[in-house]
Write a structure and sequence with these properties.
Layout: H1 2-35, H2 49-59, H3 65-78, H4 87-113, H5 118-125, H6 132-137, H7 140-151, H8 161-169, H9 178-196, H10 201-220, H11 226-256
Helix pairs in contact: 1-9, 1-10, 1-11, 2-10, 3-9, 4-9, 4-11, 7-8, 9-10, 9-11, 10-11
Keywords: Membrane, Transmembrane, Transmembrane helix
Domain Phosphatidic acid phosphatase type 2/haloperoxidase: 91-244
Transmembrane segments: 54-79, 88-109, 173-195, 202-223, 229-250
């Protein structure tokens, strides 16, 4: 049993650094740009196609999109995997433990750090919203009402309707990014499994590009700062890899029984 545990640890440690490089390094570039006075928001013309594409990336880990994403990736990861009793239960237990840990960490951290979102500061600077201290001193329902009032007479060219609604759904604090930590947890989990199974590197690469795109979408839409998505990436990869490692360990243990 010790040899099995140690062997699984060595193998997944090597794969872990591969996943870390694929997912975290591209996100770190955003922080380097910010240090050089690169402003990610407002960068896009919010009423044009690139902004809408960024929003579509965000939706893949939204309230409804995340269910479809998980189902599709689970089917891909488990395709032609040797079947055994309890496999699906263990698989989803490991996955949900990873996502649950990410969710709890994100929720606690937001209340501790209390970092205002970029769009809140942007609107306050334009005189359309109260200062961030006053804004965040209110309960979420009041924040949504103040935000709706501040956005009500802004044209579609300034802030399109879909983004107004999205901002009104995101009135919590900024650090860390819930969407980014979810995407990186998912990517860390499935990338490790795909590498473990030696599936096509194109699948792993595509999954990594998707997760990084979700992170950058949060910058471009004014929801987060570079440090938010970088910290979320590190935490998400950690939770995802730990969940995948637990399933791999169970899978290898079952082979020896």
């Amino acid at each position: 049993m010790f040899n099995l545990f140690f062997g699984a640890h060595i193998m997944t440690s090597r794969l872990f650094f591969t996943v870390l490089a694929l997912l975290v390094l591209p996100v770190a570039i955003a922080s380097l740009g910010y240090q050089s006075q690169w402003h990610w928001f407002p960068l896009l013309e919010l009423d044009e196609a690139p902004a809408l594409f960024a929003y579509s990336m965000t939706l893949t880990v939204g309230k409804f999109g995340i269910a479809f994403t998980l189902c599709a990736l689970s089917a891909l990861a488990l395709f032609r995997w040797r079947r055994r009793p309890g496999q699906l239960a263990v698989f989803f237990l490991c996955l949900m433990a990873a996502l649950g840990s990410a969710f709890v960490t994100k929720t606690v951290a937001k209340q501790y750090f209390k970092e205002p979102r970029p769009y809140v500061l942007w609107l306050a600077d334009k005189g359309r919203l109260a200062e961030s201290e006053r804004f965040y001193a209110q309960i979420p329902v009041i924040r949504e009402r103040w935000l709706a009032d501040g956005l009500s007479d802004m044209s579609e060219q300034q802030v399109p309707g879909w983004l107004k609604l999205h901002w009104q759904d995101e009135v919590s604090y900024s650090f860390p990014s819930g969407h980014s930590i979810a995407a990186m947890t998912i990517a860390g989990f499935y990338c490790l499994l795909l590498l473990y199974r030696r599936r096509s590197p194109w699948l792993t690469g595509t999954l990594a590009v998707w997760a990084v795109a979700v992170c950058y979408s949060r910058l471009l839409l004014g929801l987060h700062w570079p440090v938010d998505i970088l910290a979320s990436s590190v935490l998400g990869v950690m939770f995802g890899v730990l969940g995948a490692w637990a399933f791999i360990w169970w899978d290898q243990r079952e082979l020896t029984d």
